C-alpha cells in the first residue's frame, strides 16, 4: 500500500495500519526536519518549509494567504497542535446533507479517544499560559463568556510561543514523531523528497504513482520516480490532493470543487501593563460561546514579523508603535465558512490555482468576529487595538472599534483575512456528481484509490480540523485492512537512471526517527 503525504491524515493512517501485515510505504514531497533545523526567522521558515515558498494565496474577491507545510509531518510541524473533536452538530449535518450517517451519533468517538490517548492530547497547563493568555481568560470571564484551555498534542511545553517556527523544546507531538515511528517499527518505510505527479491506472484500478525526486534545498525536480502498489492513498492535503488526481485523469466535476476555508482575523491590543507576549503557549485559551454563529475566538501569538502586519506602516508612527511591543497581545477569531466556496486547479510552473470568493454572509460573520475580539480586548483592559480593516482608523479605542466595525459597510476586500484550515475538495458523500469520495474515502468510479486528509470534509467540522482528519484515517485503516489485497504488496520500481533507492535526494527515514 502506498500513502502519498505524511500530514495528520497520512501519518495516522500509516500508524493505524502498523502490524496489519500490509506492506506500507509513505512518500513525502518535503524533507524531514527537527530541532536543529528550526529557525527564529519566520520569513526563512516559510520560504524553505512551505509549499510555493509560503506564497500561496487565493484569487477571487479577496487575496487570502494560505500556508501548507512541505516537510515530513506536514502542517502539524508548524501549527499550534490544537486537537478538537468535530462538533456533534457538524457531524449530524454531514449525515443529513451528504449521506454520511456512519459518522454521526458518536460513531467517531472511539477513534478520537484512541488518538487522544496515543498523542497525549491535554489542556494547556496554567504554568505555561503566560500573561498574554491570562488576559484573554480574564476578558472572557468579565464578559460572562465561557472560556477553556486549549486541548493540544504536546508533552512538556515550555511556553515559548514558537509553535509556528517549529518546537525547539521538542514537546509538540507532531505526526512526524510517534505515528511515523510506530509505522517504521512495524516494518513500514518512509521516503522523503519524492513529489508525486500522477496516479498510474490499469483501467479504473490504481496501480501506483509516478513523480520525481526533489532537491530539498532548491525544490527542483531531479530524477523521475515510479512506484507500483495494489492500493494508493492520496493524503496531500486539500490543495494538492485534487491537483494530483486531476493530473491523473480523474476529472469528475467534484474533484477540486467545494473548496472551503476557515477565514480568520487577528487583532493586536495594547495594554498599560507589561505583557511580555513572547512568553506563554502560542494559543492557550478559547471561547466556544459563538459556535452557533460560526465563530471561534482564541488567544494567539506570532513572531514580530507576523504581528508587524497590524502595525501602522509610516516611519515615525511605526517606531512609536513598535515601542509598545512588550505591552501587546493578540487575539484571533475564525469563521466556519458556511457561505463561501471555491475550486482548486493548477497553473503553469507547478503552482496551485486557488479560486475562492468570500460570500456576503461570511463577510458579515467575519465583521462580527472582529467586533467581538475588539470587545474582548476592552474587557481585558486594553487601551488601544489595531485591526487592519480598510476604511477605519489604524489605531482605535477597543469599544469604539467594536461599534465602528459593526456599523461599517464593508466589502470582502476590506477585511484582512487568511486561513491555513483548508478542506472540502474531495468531499465524502453519496452522490458521485457532487462528492469526490464515498464515506470510506474511496474515490468514486475508481478502484483501490483513496483519499485521506481534510479534503474529505464536505463542510466545516466546527472546530480546528486536524483531529477529525486523524479520526477519519483511523476509521479508514479498518476498512483498508479488511479489503486491501496482500498478494503483491508495494514495490519501488525505476529505470536504471532513476536510482530510487540510491538517489541522494531521496531519504529513507530510519526506524530511529521520532
Gap between N and C termini:
22 Å
Instruction: Record the strand order, biggest sheet.
Output: 20-10-1-2-6-22
Broad shape: globular
The poorly predicted ranges are 493-503
Strand content: 15-25%
Q: Structural class, from helix and strand content?
A: alpha+beta
Mean pLDDT: 92
Largest sheet: 6 strands, mixed
The count of β-strands is 22
Rg is: 22 Å
**Secondary structure tally, helices:** 12
Fraction in helix? 25-40%
Characterization of the model:
With 514 residues, the chain is an alpha+beta fold. Helices cover 26% and strands 20% of the residues. It is built from 12 helices and 22 strands. The protein has helices spanning 8-17, 42-49, 88-98, 109-119, 130-143, 178-185, 237-247, 304-307, 315-322, 360-380, 398-407, 466-483, and strands at 2-4, 25-28, 121-123, 148-149, 151-153, 189-192, 194-202, 205-214, 221-229, 232-234, 260-261, 264-270, 285-287, 295-300, 328-335, 342-347, 351-356, 384-386, 422-423, 449-451, 490-493, 507-508. The strands form 6 sheets. The protein has a 6-stranded mixed β-sheet. Helix 1 runs parallel beside helix 6 (178-185) and helix 4 (109-119) crosses helix 12. The longest helix has 21 residues, at 360-380. It is globular, with a radius of gyration of 22 Å. The model is unreliable at 493-503 (pLDDT under 50).
Which terms would index this structure?
six-stranded antiparallel beta sheet; six-stranded mixed beta sheet; single chain; 514 residues; alpha+beta
Task: Please describe the topology of this protein.
Layout: E1 2-4, H1 8-17, E2 25-28, H2 42-49, H3 88-98, H4 109-119, E3 121-123, H5 130-143, E4 148-149, E5 151-153, H6 178-185, E6 189-192, E7 194-202, E8 205-214, E9 221-229, E10 232-234, H7 237-247, E11 260-261, E12 264-270, E13 285-287, E14 295-300, H8 304-307, H9 315-322, E15 328-335, E16 342-347, E17 351-356, H10 360-380, E18 384-386, H11 398-407, E19 422-423, E20 449-451, H12 466-483, E21 490-493, E22 507-508
Parallel strand pairs: 1-2, 1-10, 2-6, 10-20
Antiparallel strand pairs: 3-5, 4-13, 6-22, 7-8, 8-9, 9-21, 11-19, 12-15, 12-18, 13-14, 14-15, 16-17
Helix pairs in contact: 1-6, 1-12, 4-12, 5-10, 10-11
